[in-house]
User: Which sequence fits this backbone?
C-alpha cells in the first residue's frame, strides 16, 4: 500500500521519548516561510513573523513545517538550522500551495476535469511535482477535491466540478501524480486532499459560509473524493473553514476522528486550513483561543496552520490534563511518521538540490504537456454551420480584452508560474498562421476586462466589418474565481456583453472564446454566437492550445464538468438533483417545478461537448434484465463517427434508480471513457456496471443497494441517450 507508513520508523519512538512538551507542540505548528522568497499575498495577515524570527523558531525546535516559500538554496539553509542547530535535529517539512502547476502552469483543475481524462491530470500533477520538488518543496496543499454544485462559489475552479464519480477519479489521479510511485523519491510531492469536508456546499455559494447538509448527501456526494484520494495514498488531509450542520469541520470529532481515523484508518496527518483553529472563536464555537485549541486538537486536528495556537495553548492544556499526553504523542507520532515516510530522516536535504532546481527550471516536455493538457480541456459548446475550424487564410478579427492579455492566463492559485513563458491568444494565433498570412489577423481589445475604452467598441465593430469571422475573447477576469470570490450573478462583465452585442450586430459570424473559472450564464449575442468554446484558464500555453483548436489541428474533446444554466438564479444547479414530485413536462404546463423565466434544465448540460465530426449514439443495451446484488451488468451502445475526420468522444454511463428509500437523483454518472474514433467508424462501447455502484446512503442510514428497477444510459451527456431498463434482484 502506498499510504502505509507502517512499520513505524523506530526513530520516531526514540525521538518522542526525548522530546519536551514544547518540542512536541513545535512539531504540530506550521508557519509562513518568510525565510525564502514568499509567494504573493493569498491569505489574511495573522501571526506574522519575519525571517529571523522564523529561523529562530526552527532553531528552537518549535516548527514542524513552513509554507509558501520556495527555493532550494535557502531551503537547505532552513534545513541545516533544523538538523544541525536544533536540539533534536528534526527536519522541517516545506510545503506550498502548488495547485495546477509550479513554473509551468497547467489548466485550472476545473478546466482539466473537462478533459474527462484522469490520466492526463496524473501526468500534469507529476510534472508539477517534478518542478515543485526541484524548487525545494516536499508537500503541496492539493488536490482540492471539493464537489461544487453551486457555480456562485469561486473555489469550484480548484476542483473537478459538480460530479462525484468524475471528482473521485481526478482526486485519485492527482494524488498518484503528485506523490509518484515512491514517497521517498526526491521528486515525490506529498499530496493533501482538501478541504475536509463539504466546503463546496457552503450556503448560497458564498465562501466561508455555513453548510446545512443531509448525512446522505455528505456521504454520497462530498466524502467519496476524499476516500478516493486517501485510497490512492495521500498522507495529509486539510480541514475546511465551514461548519457542517453547526459543528465546524476543523473541530469536528465525528468526521476527523470517527470517520477519518477510526472508520477509514487514515494513517497520515490532518492539518488545519489557514487559521481555521483561530476561527472557531469567530464561529462562536469556542469561548476563547485556549478553548479553540482544545476543541480543534481534541477533534483530531494534528497540525495547526499559522495561528500559533497550538504552541501558545497546548502545553497548558497538557499540564492541566485537559489534553492527555498520550493524545499529544499520537499527533506528534503522525507528523514524525510522515516525515519518516517521505525519507526526511534518511536525507533531510531531500528535494533541496540547487543543481536540480536549475536543470528543471524550463523543461520542454512540460511545455508540450501544458499545451496538450490545455487543448484537451477546451469544450466546444456549439458550432452552427460548421464555422469552426477556421481556415488559415480567413480574414480574422480577434476582439476582446483577453486577446493580448497575459495577466489572466494562469487562473487562481498559481503562485510561482513563470510569467515570461505565458502565451497570449494573439501570440498563439499568429504562430499558427503561415508566414505572410499574419496580416489577415486584426487584433482589437474593444474594452478592458471591466471598463469601456474610448473608441474601443467602434474599433471592434470596424474590424468585424472587415473580417470574415470574429473571434471574440471574453470572460471573467481571473480574480473572479478562487478563494473568497463568490458571485451572485455568474454572467460576463456588462462592458464585455455590450462589446459582444455591438460586434454581433455587424452580422459577421462570431466565435466566442470564453475564459472562466466556473460555469457561466450566457446571455444575448454571446449565447447566440455561431460557435462557443469554453477555455477556462488554460495556463502557460493558452494561446497555442486555443490556436490548435481554432484551426482544427486538434478536434476539441472536452466535456462540461459543470452544468451551464440559463440564468444565475437557477443556482445551485447540478444535473444529478433529486427527483421532484412535480417534474416539468415538455408542454411546460402550470404547477410544475420550473421558474417563471426558465425551465428546470441546463442551457448546456453536464457532460456536453462537441468535436469536429458528428457522433451518433444508438440505444443503450444491457446484457441481462436482472442483476444480482453482487453481480455485474454490461451496458453498451453503438457509437458512430458520421464525419470525415477523427475525433475523440467521451462516452458516459449514467444510471437512474427508479424507487428508493430516499428520493434518488434523476441520473448519476457511473463511468466514462474517452475514445478515438476514425471517420466513419462505428463501435460498441461497453461498460461493466457492478451492483455495488448502485449503493447509496439509504433511509436506514446504512450504505448499500436496494432492489428495484433502474435505467441505464450510454450517452454523450447527462441529458442525452436512449435508456435500457434492468432490475436489481
Ligand atoms: C486556503 C487553502 C490554502 C491555505 C494556505 C487557505 O486560505 O483555503 O486552500 O491551502 O490558505 O495558503
Assistant:
Amino acid at each position: 500500500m502506498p499510504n502505509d507508513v507502517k512499520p513505524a520508523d523506530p526513530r520516531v519512538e526514540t525521538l518522542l521519548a526525548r522530546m519536551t512538551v514544547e518540542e512536541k507542540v513545535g512539531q504540530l505548528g506550521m508557519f509562513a516561510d518568510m525565510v525564502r522568497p514568499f509567494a504573493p499575498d493569498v491569505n489574511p495577515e495573522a501571526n506574522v513573523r519575519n525571517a529571523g524570527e522564523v529561523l529562530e523558531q526552527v532553531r528552537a525546535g518549535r516548527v514542524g513545517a513552513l509554507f509558501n516559500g520556495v527555493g532550494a538554496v535557502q531551503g537547505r539553509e532552513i534545513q541545516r538550522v533544523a538538523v544541525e542547530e536544533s536540539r533534536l535535529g528534526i527536519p522541517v517539512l516545506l510545503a506550498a500551495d502548488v495547485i495546477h502547476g509550479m513554473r509551468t502552469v497547467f489548466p485550472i483543475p476545473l478546466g482539466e476535469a473537462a478533459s474527462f481524462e484522469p490520466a492526463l491530470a496524473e501526468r500534469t500533477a507529476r510534472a508539477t511535482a517534478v518542478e515543485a520538488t526541484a524548487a525545494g518543496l516536499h508537500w503541496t496543499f492539493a488536490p482540492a477535491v471539493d464537489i461544487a454544485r453551486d457555480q456562485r462559489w469561486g473555489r469550484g475552479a480548484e476542483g473537478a466540478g459538480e460530479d462525484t464519480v468524475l471528482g473521485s477519479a481526478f482526486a485519485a489521479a492527482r494524488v498518484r501524480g503528485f506523490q509518484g510511485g515512491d514517497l521517498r523519491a526526491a521528486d515525490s510531492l506529498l499530496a493533501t486532499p482538501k478541504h475536509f469536508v463539504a466546503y463546496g456546499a457552503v450556503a448560497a455559494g458564498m465562501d466561508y459560509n455555513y453548510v446545512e447538509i443531509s448525512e446522505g448527501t455528505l456521504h454520497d456526494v462530498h466524502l467519496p473524493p476524499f476516500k478516493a484520494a486517501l485510497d490512492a495514498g495521500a498522507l495529509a488531509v486539510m480541514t475546511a473553514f465551514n461548519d457542517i450542520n453547526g459543528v465546524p469541520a476543523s473541530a469536528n470529532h465525528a468526521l476527523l476522528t470517527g470517520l477519518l481515523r477510526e472508520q477509514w484508518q487514515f494513517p497520515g496527518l490532518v492539518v488545519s486550513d489557514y487559521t481555521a483553529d483561530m476561527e472557531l472563536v469567530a464561529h462562536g464555537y469556542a469561548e476563547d483561543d485556549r478553548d479553540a485549541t482544545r476543541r480543534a486538537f481534541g477533534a483530531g486536528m494534528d497540525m495547526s496552520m499559522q495561528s500559533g495556537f497550538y504552541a501558545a495553548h497546548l502545553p497548558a492544556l497538557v499540564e492541566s490534563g485537559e489534553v492527555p499526553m498520550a493524545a499529544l504523542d499520537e499527533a506528534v507520532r503522525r507528523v514524525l511518521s510522515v516525515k519518516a515516510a517521505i525519507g526526511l530522516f534518511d536525507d533531510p536535504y531531500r528535494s533541496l538540490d540547487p543543481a536540480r532546481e536549475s536543470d528543471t527550471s524550463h523543461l520542454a516536455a512540460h511545455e508540450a504537456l501544458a499545451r496538450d493538457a490545455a487543448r484537451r480541456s477546451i469544450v466546444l459548446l456549439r458550432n452552427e454551420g460548421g464555422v469552426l475550424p477556421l481556415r488559415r487564410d480567413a480574414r480574422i478579427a480577434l476582439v476582446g480584452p483577453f486577446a493580448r492579455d497575459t495577466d489572466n492566463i494562469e487562473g487562481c492559485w498559481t503562485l510561482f508560474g513563470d510569467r515570461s513563458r505565458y502565451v497570449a491568444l494573439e501570440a498563439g494565433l499568429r504562430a499558427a498562421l503561415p508566414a505572410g498570412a499574419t496580416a489577415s489577423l486584426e487584433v482589437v481589445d474593444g474594452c478592458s476586462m471591466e471598463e469601456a475604452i474610448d473608441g474601443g467598441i467602434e474599433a471592434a465593430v470596424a474590424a468585424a466589418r472587415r473580417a470574415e469571422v470574429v473571434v471574440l475573447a471574453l470572460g471573467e477576469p481571473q480574480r473572479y474565481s478562487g478563494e473568497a470570490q463568490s458571485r451572485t450573478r455568474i454572467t460576463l462583465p456588462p462592458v464585455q456583453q455590450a462589446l459582444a452585442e455591438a460586434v454581433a450586430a455587424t452580422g459577421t459570424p462570431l466565435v466566442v472564446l470564453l475564459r472562466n473559472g466556473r460555469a457561466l450564464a450566457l446571455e444575448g449575442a454571446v449565447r447566440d454566437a455561431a460557435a462557443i468554446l469554453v477555455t477556462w484558464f488554460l495556463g502557460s500555453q493558452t494561446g497555442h492550445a486555443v490556436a490548435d483548436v481554432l484551426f482544427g489541428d486538434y478536434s476539441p474533446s472536452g466535456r462540461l464538468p459543470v452544468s451551464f444554466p440559463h440564468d444565475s438564479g437557477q443556482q445551485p444547479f447540478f444535473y444529478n438533483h433529486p427527483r421532484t414530485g412535480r417534474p416539468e413536462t415538455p408542454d411546460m404546463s402550470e404547477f410544475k417545478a420550473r421558474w417563471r423565466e426558465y425551465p428546470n434544465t441546463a442551457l448546456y448540460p453536464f457532460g456536453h461537448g462537441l468535436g469536429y465530426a458528428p457522433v451518433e449514439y444508438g440505444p443503450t443495451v444491457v446484457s441481462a434484465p436482472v442483476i444480482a446484488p453482487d453481480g455485474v451488468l454490461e451496458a453498451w451502445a453503438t457509437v458512430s463517427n458520421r464525419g470525415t475526420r477523427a475525433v475523440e468522444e467521451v462516452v458516459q454511463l449514467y444510471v437512474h434508480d427508479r424507487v428508493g428509500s430516499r428520493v434518488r437523483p434523476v441520473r448519476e454518472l457511473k463511468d466514462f471513457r474517452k475514445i478515438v474514433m476514425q471517420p466513419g467508424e462505428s463501435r460498441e462501447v461497453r461498460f461493466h456496471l457492478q451492483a455495488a455502484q448502485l449503493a447509496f446512503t439509504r433511509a436506514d442510514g446504512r450504505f448499500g443497494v436496494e432492489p428495484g428497477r433502474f435505467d441505464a444510459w450510454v450517452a454523450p451527456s447527462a441529458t442525452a441517450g436512449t435508456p435500457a431498463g434492468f432490475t436489481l434482484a
